[in-house]
Sequence to fold (112 residues):
Amino acid sequence: MELQIKTEAGVCIVSIGEDRIDAAVALDFKEAVRLGTQAAPAEVVLDLTQVRFIDSSGLGAIVATMKHLAPERRLVLAGLTPPVEKVFRLTRMDSVFEIHLTLEEALRAHCE
Fold:
Protein backbone atom coordinates (compact mmCIF):
# COMPACT_ATOMS: atom_id res chain seq x y z
CA MET A 1 0.00 0.00 0.00
CA GLU A 2 1.58 3.24 -1.16
CA LEU A 3 0.75 6.17 1.12
CA GLN A 4 2.26 9.59 1.48
CA ILE A 5 1.65 11.20 4.87
CA LYS A 6 2.59 14.80 5.61
CA THR A 7 1.46 17.65 7.82
CA GLU A 8 0.71 20.97 6.18
CA ALA A 9 -0.68 24.03 7.95
CA GLY A 10 -1.68 21.97 10.98
CA VAL A 11 -3.54 19.33 8.93
CA CYS A 12 -2.34 15.77 8.37
CA ILE A 13 -2.71 14.78 4.71
CA VAL A 14 -2.79 11.09 3.83
CA SER A 15 -2.50 10.67 0.06
CA ILE A 16 -3.15 7.24 -1.38
CA GLY A 17 -0.87 6.31 -4.26
CA GLU A 18 -2.90 3.33 -5.41
CA ASP A 19 -5.84 3.12 -7.80
CA ARG A 20 -7.73 0.56 -5.68
CA ILE A 21 -8.72 0.08 -2.06
CA ASP A 22 -10.11 -3.43 -1.98
CA ALA A 23 -9.92 -6.66 0.00
CA ALA A 24 -6.35 -7.27 -1.18
CA VAL A 25 -5.01 -4.09 0.45
CA ALA A 26 -7.59 -3.17 3.12
CA LEU A 27 -5.64 -4.56 6.08
CA ASP A 28 -2.38 -2.99 4.91
CA PHE A 29 -4.20 0.31 4.36
CA LYS A 30 -5.64 0.36 7.89
CA GLU A 31 -2.30 -0.50 9.48
CA ALA A 32 -0.32 2.01 7.42
CA VAL A 33 -2.74 4.84 8.18
CA ARG A 34 -2.88 3.88 11.87
CA LEU A 35 0.90 3.98 12.16
CA GLY A 36 1.25 7.12 10.07
CA THR A 37 -1.32 9.15 12.00
CA GLN A 38 -0.38 8.30 15.60
CA ALA A 39 0.98 11.80 16.21
CA ALA A 40 -1.31 13.55 13.73
CA PRO A 41 -3.01 16.86 14.51
CA ALA A 42 -6.78 17.09 15.09
CA GLU A 43 -7.65 17.17 11.36
CA VAL A 44 -6.71 14.30 9.04
CA VAL A 45 -7.54 14.58 5.34
CA LEU A 46 -7.63 11.39 3.30
CA ASP A 47 -6.82 12.30 -0.30
CA LEU A 48 -8.52 9.78 -2.60
CA THR A 49 -7.68 11.56 -5.87
CA GLN A 50 -5.86 8.55 -7.38
CA VAL A 51 -8.34 5.90 -6.21
CA ARG A 52 -10.54 4.64 -9.04
CA PHE A 53 -12.10 1.61 -7.32
CA ILE A 54 -13.24 0.81 -3.80
CA ASP A 55 -15.10 -2.26 -2.58
CA SER A 56 -16.82 -3.01 0.72
CA SER A 57 -13.53 -4.01 2.35
CA GLY A 58 -11.97 -0.72 1.32
CA LEU A 59 -14.98 1.20 2.58
CA GLY A 60 -14.80 -0.73 5.84
CA ALA A 61 -11.11 0.13 6.16
CA ILE A 62 -11.88 3.85 5.80
CA VAL A 63 -14.67 3.60 8.40
CA ALA A 64 -12.31 1.73 10.74
CA THR A 65 -9.73 4.48 10.24
CA MET A 66 -12.32 7.11 11.16
CA LYS A 67 -13.19 5.20 14.34
CA HIS A 68 -9.52 4.72 15.21
CA LEU A 69 -8.85 8.46 14.93
CA ALA A 70 -11.92 9.51 16.96
CA PRO A 71 -12.53 11.28 19.25
CA GLU A 72 -9.19 13.14 19.32
CA ARG A 73 -8.95 13.51 15.55
CA ARG A 74 -11.40 13.84 12.70
CA LEU A 75 -11.13 12.16 9.29
CA VAL A 76 -12.14 14.27 6.29
CA LEU A 77 -12.24 12.91 2.73
CA ALA A 78 -11.15 14.73 -0.41
CA GLY A 79 -10.88 14.11 -4.14
CA LEU A 80 -13.34 11.29 -4.58
CA THR A 81 -13.39 10.12 -8.19
CA PRO A 82 -16.86 9.47 -9.69
CA PRO A 83 -16.78 5.66 -9.13
CA VAL A 84 -15.64 6.10 -5.51
CA GLU A 85 -18.14 8.89 -4.88
CA LYS A 86 -20.90 6.60 -6.20
CA VAL A 87 -20.00 3.91 -3.64
CA PHE A 88 -20.10 6.46 -0.82
CA ARG A 89 -23.45 7.80 -2.05
CA LEU A 90 -25.04 4.34 -2.53
CA THR A 91 -23.97 3.22 0.94
CA ARG A 92 -24.97 6.57 2.42
CA MET A 93 -21.46 7.02 3.79
CA ASP A 94 -21.54 10.46 2.19
CA SER A 95 -23.72 11.47 5.14
CA VAL A 96 -21.18 10.10 7.65
CA PHE A 97 -18.05 11.76 6.29
CA GLU A 98 -17.24 15.36 5.49
CA ILE A 99 -16.30 15.19 1.81
CA HIS A 100 -14.57 17.87 -0.27
CA LEU A 101 -14.23 17.89 -4.06
CA THR A 102 -10.48 18.53 -3.93
CA LEU A 103 -7.62 18.39 -1.48
CA GLU A 104 -7.17 22.13 -1.87
CA GLU A 105 -10.81 22.72 -0.88
CA ALA A 106 -10.41 20.52 2.20
CA LEU A 107 -7.27 22.37 3.24
CA ARG A 108 -8.95 25.76 2.80
CA ALA A 109 -11.86 24.58 4.96
CA HIS A 110 -9.59 23.33 7.75
CA CYS A 111 -6.72 25.79 7.71
CA GLU A 112 -8.83 28.89 8.39
Q: What stands out?
A: The first helix runs from residue 26 to 36.
